[in-house]
């Protein structure tokens, strides 16, 4: 290719870009969500990697509380420190509200299939708790469909790996929450895995 | 006879020195940058598996123009409430230090004037390189990765990898692209703008000894234009899968003068390769991410006509056409991180500006790398590398240590590395390069009795960025 053809091709690219920018934007994602949150959590709050939780249909009150906890460093599990302390550092209360409202209104993540035996065992814990170990039913706070309620997060359709990590972090107090600490320390690794399998399949 | 031999040896060592200097100028210390961490408030692990390899998040950070910022901004607006300035209150700067020990299998001959010190088998460099970075946001949509590095060979400070980048988001619903990134990059090293670690500028080995013996041939796109070219290009990242870029590179020689400024004729003293006109560069890649996995298949290449050293921009040119394919796979678990990259570069090289035996030659480069890290703390990498090509006794001439007795550029071997990272920004490594073939042969490759394994290199380093 000669120099003129190369220059022309670059010029075309440069000219095409602003035209594309002017194209009608779709969706109502706040700018911040589109440029930053979506990188890990997906534009509509459904993430690819289990390192990052699905935020779609999460109660706005829970999201607000978490973003404020990241901002003031009161939520301090390893991924919170690595990612969210920085992300939330400059967020105003108004921005936090806007982000939380947006994700709370997105359609929830569809469940992913898991081993039926694990799902059944997890359902048992979720619906009835484990009396012998003093573990209450998860649905008492998180809702009968694990849909969440105010500051209690939605768990249905959440990544299995993320739920397991959070329960481990509650147990070790890397993520501080007294009630969840009590519950998580009473669960075995097998039970954590089962309940996470069930929730991710919902 | 003796005097001829030693003269030849001296000449060979001088050529080796020049090659080493060129290789050093071309090889840039690949980098993770503390400036980005300072600007974003994110730990290294957000953008890097183990520095400098990028995670999917790191790739998007780069594609978005390095602008994502979580620190206080100095800002301004106009009367229409449009932003006219948004700059980090604190500059995202950082430093990088590399220090190393190198032991070559068999020292190079020590009979050239002024090069006696290079004949030693073991060498310590402190520092091997010291870099200053400005990496991050300049304003909304505009960011930079700028690096200056002190180079021990020339004892001077020079421009290292540099990338000035504009990026924005747009949507074209008509083609199903509800949100895509488009950008413009101005950089000084073909493939340094790339976001995957399988293309040459940012691939394993991320750090190499300055003192290794350089092979006789490398493809043009494989570092030969690093820091001596200027490329302007446009790219898009669409559907969260597809990357397309087209750039054009021109020679950008630092420190030149011309006869109007009473210096020598433009570029005539520059010793490196100069591109005649504009060299087109292209890149296409498809990335598929699922769960903790990321897989990319891609192709890249460039076509350049170049002038050889010392003859300005006049006269016949050499022609290089590089066509490459590459692939990268990553598994990023909470504890286990697995990466694999591969690339194959085919080069058609025709030399009109220098005399060769064949009217045209081919050169094929293959690299296949696997890497594993546990907890981002301890791990290792293994690479098989191969350069093969048509033999040409005039192009790949004889010469002690750096020459080829049979005119073949074939060089093959492995590079193994073990790393320990006590902290995310500090890497302690032991690397071993073993050659099964060097410049065409396993034994007596240079015709002076040197074997490929004599160039095996043990390299121990510390690399930290802060």
Give structural notes.
The complex is a heterodimer of chains A (202) and B (466). By secondary structure, chain A is mainly α. In chain A, 58% of the residues lie in helices and 0% in strands. Chain A contains 10 helices and no strands. In chain A, helix 3 runs antiparallel to helix 5 (93-104). The longest helix of chain A has 20 residues, at 3-22. Chain A is globular. The model of chain A is unreliable at 5-27 (pLDDT under 50). Chain B is mostly beta strands and 466 residues long. Chain B contains 5 helices and 19 strands. Chain B has helices at residues 2-26, 34-40, 44-47, 56-63, 220-224; strands at residues 73-77, 83-88, 93-104, 122-139, 142-151, 156-172, 177-187, 229-238, 242-251, 274-275, 279-290, 293-307, 318-332, 336-351, 361-374, 378-389, 411-423, 426-437, 457-465. In chain B, the strands form 2 sheets. Chain B has a 16-stranded antiparallel barrel with strand order 3-4-5-6-7-8-9-11-12-13-14-15-16-17-18-19.
Report the structural category of chain A. Answer: mainly alpha
Measured as a percent range, the helix fraction of chain A is 55-70%
Number of separate helices of chain B:
5
CATH class of the largest domain in chain A: Mainly Alpha
What is the average of the pLDDT values of chain A? Answer: 86
CATH architecture of the largest domain in chain A: Orthogonal Bundle
Find the CATH topology of the largest domain in chain A.
Cytochrome Bc1 Complex, Chain D, domain 2
Sheet with the most strands of chain B?
16 strands, antiparallel, barrel
Order of helices and strands of chain B: HHHHEEEEEEEHEEEEEEEEEEEE
Low-confidence stretches of chain A: 5-27
- End-to-end Cα distance of chain A: 55 Å
Q: What is the H-and-E element order of chain A?
A: HHHHHHHHHH
Mean pLDDT score of chain B? 87
N- to C-terminal separation of chain B? 55 Å
Radius of gyration of chain B: 23 Å
Question: What percent of the residues of chain B sit in helical stretches (DSSP H or I)?
Answer: 10-25%
In the residues of chain A, how many domains can be counted? 2
Secondary-structure-derived class of chain B: mainly beta
Gross morphology of chain B is globular
């Amino acid at each position: 290719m000669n120099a003129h053809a190369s220059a022309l091709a670059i010029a075309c690219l440069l000219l095409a870009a602003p035209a594309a920018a002017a194209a009608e934007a779709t969706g109502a994602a706040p700018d911040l969500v589109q440029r930053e949150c979506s990188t890990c959590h997906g534009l509509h709050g459904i993430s690819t990697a289990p390192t990052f939780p699905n935020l779609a249909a999460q109660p706005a009150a829970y999201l607000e509380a978490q973003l404020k906890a990241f901002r003031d460093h009161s939520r301090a599990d390893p991924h919170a420190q690595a990612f969210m302390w920085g992300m939330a550092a400059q967020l105003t209360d108004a921005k936090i509200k806007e982000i939380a409202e947006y994700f709370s209104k997105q359609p929830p993540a569809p469940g992913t299939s898991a081993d039926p035996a694990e799902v059944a065992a997890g359902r048992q814990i979720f619906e009835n708790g484990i009396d012998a170990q003093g573990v209450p039913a998860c649905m008492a706070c998180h809702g009968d469909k694990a849909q969440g309620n105010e500051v209690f997060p939605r768990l249905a359709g959440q990544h299995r790996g993320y739920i397991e990590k959070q329960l481990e972090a509650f147990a070790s107090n890397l993520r501080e929450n007294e009630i969840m600490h009590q519950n998580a320390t009473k669960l075995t690794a097998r039970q954590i895995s089962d309940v996470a399998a069930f929730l991710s399949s919902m | 006879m003796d005097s001829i031999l030693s003269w030849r040896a001296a000449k060979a060592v001088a050529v080796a020195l020049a090659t080493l200097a060129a290789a050093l100028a071309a090889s840039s210390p690949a980098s993770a940058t503390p400036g980005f961490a300072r600007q974003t408030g994110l730990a290294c692990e957000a953008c890097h598996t183990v520095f400098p390899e990028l995670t999917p998040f790191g790739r998007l950070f780069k594609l978005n123009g390095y602008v994502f910022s979580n620190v206080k901004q100095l800002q301004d607006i106009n009367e229409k409430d449009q932003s006219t300035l948004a700059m980090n209150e604190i500059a995202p700067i950082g430093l990088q230090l590399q220090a190393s020990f190198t032991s070559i299998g068999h020292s190079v001959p020590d009979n050239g004037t002024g090069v006696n010190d290079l004949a030693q088998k073991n060498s310590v460099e402190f520092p091997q390189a010291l870099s200053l970075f400005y990496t991050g946001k300049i304003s909304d949509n505009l960011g930079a990765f700028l690096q200056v590095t002190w180079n021990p060979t020339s004892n001077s400070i020079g421009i290292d990898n540099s990338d000035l980048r504009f990026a924005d988001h747009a949507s074209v619903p008509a083609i199903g692209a509800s949100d895509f990134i488009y950008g413009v990059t101005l950089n000084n090293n073909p493939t340094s703008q790339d976001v995957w670690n399988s293309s040459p500028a940012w691939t394993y080995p991320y750090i190499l000894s300055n003192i290794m013996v350089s092979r006789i041939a490398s493809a043009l796109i494989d570092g030969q234009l690093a820091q001596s070219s200027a490329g302007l290009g446009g790219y898009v990242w669409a559907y969260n899968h597809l990357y397309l870029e087209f750039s054009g590179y021109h020679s950008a020689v630092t420190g030149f003068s011309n006869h109007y400024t009473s210096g020598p004729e433009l570029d005539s003293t520059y010793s490196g390769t100069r591109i005649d006109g504009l060299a087109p560069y292209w890149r296409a890649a498809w990335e598929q991410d699922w769960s903790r996995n990321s897989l990319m298949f891609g192709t890249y290449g460039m076509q350049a006509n170049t002038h050889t050293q010392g003859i300005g921009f006049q006269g016949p040119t050499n022609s290089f056409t590089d066509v490459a394919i590459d692939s990268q796979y990553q598994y990023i678990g909470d504890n286990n991180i697995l990466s694999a990259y591969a690339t194959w570069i085919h080069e058609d090289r025709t030399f009109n500006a220098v005399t060769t035996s064949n009217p045209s030659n081919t050169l094929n480069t293959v690299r296949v790398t696997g890497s594993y890290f546990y907890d981002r703390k301890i791990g290792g990498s293994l690479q098989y590398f191969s350069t093969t090509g048509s033999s040409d006794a005039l192009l790949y001439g004889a010469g002690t240590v750096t020459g080829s007795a049979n005119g073949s550029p074939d060089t093959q071997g492995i590079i193994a590395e073990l790393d320990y990272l006590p902290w995310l920004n500090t890497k302690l490594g032991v690397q071993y390069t073993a050659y099964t073939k060097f410049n065409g042969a396993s034994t007596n490759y240079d015709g002076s009795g040197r074997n490929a394994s004599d160039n095996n290199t043990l390299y121990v380093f510390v690399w930290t960025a802060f």
